[in-house]
């Protein structure tokens, strides 16, 4: 896999966020200000536009460029968090012109860490992390078992989806949803939904 694989992935991210824009708006209108769908569709579109015709062979630099473009296009809280994930992944893969399955794990692990570092949230606090971290754990487990990329992507998506659905058992700690206190427990977290969609995009390009 080379930088073209990552461009394909970012294109799929763009497409899947556009496809689910209204659903994200619907989720976010309950717990936030309702702009998440626009932020994600516009943000990942900007990320893709910045690299779609790139001749950059360095996978890390490509991801960082995409993240930088996203941060400029959608400087909101969630836009900044997602851009931070891309840039952190870019730093971790800098210098690599070809990536393998282990590097894919590094990519998503770094993405999650970049978001966590910027957002100061923890697992169990009803955020993006509750969708992405189970997926990362699944990827690590799959790598240790020697599974191929198709199996890795399918299983990681399944875990992200479970993580998203499991946010209905959590009380929100961050953002507007936190003001609801215990009443936030039954609501699905829009950020964790974004994590699920990211892993769905990853699954799509490998199947």
Automatic annotation (TrEMBL):
E.C. designation(s): 2.7.1.121
GO cellular component, one term: cytosol
PROSITE patterns in the record: DHAL (PS51480)
Entry keyword annotation includes Lyase: no
Pathway the protein takes part in: Polyol metabolism; glycerol degradation
Organism superkingdom: Bacteria
A GO biological process held by the record: glycerol catabolic process
PANTHER family from the UniProt entry: TRIOKINASE/FMN CYCLASE (PTHR28629), TRIOKINASE_FMN CYCLASE (PTHR28629:SF4)
Protein name (record): phosphoenolpyruvate--glycerone phosphotransferase
Lineage: Bacteria, Bacillati, Bacillota, Clostridia, Lachnospirales
